[in-house]
Design brief:
Number of domains: 1
Shape: globular
Number of strands: 7
CATH architecture: 3-Layer(aba) Sandwich
Radius of gyration: 17 Å
Strand content: 15-25%
CATH class: Alpha Beta
Strand order of the largest sheet: 3-2-1-4-5-7-6
Number of helices: 8
Helix content: 25-40%
């Protein structure tokens, strides 16, 4: 069974839990994984919403000596991922319980080197996005990265991820449809004040604003 068939069948089951419009391309997966930076062997890498495993395959290939933990809510996708990518620890569960999943696997939270997300945070109901972001911030050690891909960069102004500082955005035009890879890092110290958060958000949006020459004719 191909990735595309599994992907669209998952959409048919629950449109809100699937973050992508189409299965992610190899180049997008490469950009997302490279955005994690250098990772030491033996570290733990967490992937949220792996779907059909485009990012998962790249993660285990690029970091063969690390523990890749992929957390997926769709039970059928979990079964497919376990068969197709046995080198990853595929967990059936919710992204709001990352620390519980790590405990169940016997993995030390301090070994977490980064979090990658393909979750549809823009469309998830109620306060679920803020709960997930809070859990990501809680599990990440200081200075470690969180990478999210999205098709709607400007819509991210709704979020001010606590303790997660925006670093950069990269537009991947070659993906169908074009997608943006957003990189954050776990901040040091206490959460920023509301004024500092607003300044950070303004700078975030200003840096994400695409140039007309580069984005003309593309949906994002």
């Amino acid at each position: 069974m191909g990735d595309s068939f599994r992907f669209f069948r998952a959409i048919a089951r629950d449109t809100r839990s699937v973050g992508a419009i189409a299965p992610s391309g190899r180049y997008l997966a490469s950009v997302v994984v490279r955005s994690l930076g250098t990772i030491r062997p033996g570290s733990v890498i967490i992937e949220l919403g792996p779907g059909t495993g485009s990012f998962t395959k790249t993660l285990v290939a690029r970091h063969p000596q690390c523990h890749v933990v992929a957390i997926e809510i769709d039970r059928q996708l979990v079964q497919c991922l376990r068969r197709s990518i046995p080198r990853a620890e595929v967990v059936h569960g919710c992204a709001t319980r990352i620390r519980e999943h790590l405990d169940a696997l016997g993995l030390d939270h301090k070994r977490v080197a980064g979090v990658v997300s393909g979750l549809p945070l823009l469309t998830l109901p109620k306060d679920l996005p803020s709960q997930i972001l809070a859990e990501i911030a809680a599990v990440l050690p200081e200075g470690k990265p969180f990478v999210q891909f999205t098709y709607s960069r400007i819509a991210w102004r709704r979020f001010t991820p606590q303790d997660l500082k925006f670093r950069k955005a990269q537009l991947v035009i070659s993906n169908i449809p074009p997608a943006s890879v957003l990189s954050f890092v776990k901040c040091q110290g206490s959460p920023a004040s509301s004024i500092a958060k607003r300044r950070l958000l303004k700078g975030f949006l200003r840096r994400l604003r695409p140039k007309r020459k580069e984005t003309k004719g593309h949906p994002c």
